[in-house]
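Q: Start with the shorter request: fold the first protein.
A: Done. Sequence, then structure:
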Amino acid sequence: MSRSILVTGATGRQGGSVVQALQDSDFEVLALTRTTSSPSAQKLVSKFPSVKLVQGDLINASAIFEEAAKVARTPVWGVFSVQAKVSGADKSPEEIQGKSIIDAALAANVKFFVYSSVDRGGAKSSSNPTSVPHWITKYNIEKYLEEKAAGTQMHYSVLRPVAFMDGVTNDFQGKAMAAMWRDEMKDRPLQMVATKDIGWFAAHAFKNSDDFAGQYISLAGAQITFAQANAIFREKFSKDLPTTYGLVAGLMLHLIKDINLMFKWLKKEGTAANISELKRINPQLTDFGTWLERDSTFRV
């Protein structure tokens, strides 16, 4: 019998990548959205007709499972949980949402839970909340998941992606991030991951839940300096990677505490995904050049 998986953030990057990665499986995919009639939700079901939309808000997670029961053929077996980064100093909404979906999943007898967090130094992530506010929030959610799931029938796996390749864009935000990468990291390499690989590993964990129960997996597909990334970009497109002025990047670092602390931590400690091991699990793991060619919005 087909098992149902509830995907939070289904109209966003990570959740959308999970929905896509589950299309070749026997799972019934339930896509959580705040409004089922929204353009993004309708675009999702247009692209993936077998997907069933579930309307709900993570603040009231128990109601989500009530709505899921109305459209799913079977009770929800698995949950993919990701929360959007919250702007501003108050990170409590993200933590409330992350903990709420854990509580609701346990109450609904969910059997397998995949949480998308962030890498904070490979194996050290489990004991290192770091000084970055929105990473501390994810650390707290991880610990809550461990505590609440202990001794229950709900197993879980935690994915810890590094910086997203998908953040390399030709708009202001992408240019600013590239400039900060250039100016702050200098010759220090940065680990990066393609969002679609997050989806692949989430789907792989659901498909192999017995093997992945209790696993914490840091995700990256490349480890490169800005200069190396720029060289790859020039090879593909015969121009430099789009950036903004260093003064603008410096001002953003001064004004946005989270980003400032993030780059300071990346320079001092850095992420530590085991890329060679990830390639063993997924030989099609996406490197930066492949991502530019196949998945980025850049074209010749």
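Q: Next, the second protein, separately.
A: Sequence, then structure:
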Amino acid sequence: MKPVTLYTKAFCPYCARAEKLLKQKGVDFTDIPAAFDREKKAEMVQRSGGRATFPQIFIGDTHVGGYDDLYALDQAGKLDPMLAD
């Protein structure tokens, strides 16, 4: 399974939903709290092509987007293939 990275902030309902969806799929992920860390937030914005909302989700080096994007991929049946090696 490809590594999954989430840039999150505390008390973010979309972050919690993304984490829940990934956990339901049995996906281990790296959670990077970036809201109050300037370096991590700048890294997130750079990696995501300028997006500064939370969460920002990456599968391997591929930027998925936020929770709505992750959910849409799952509903379309495209998330599991992305996660596979």
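Q: Describe the second briefly.
A: The chain has four helices and four strands. The radius of gyration is 12 Å.
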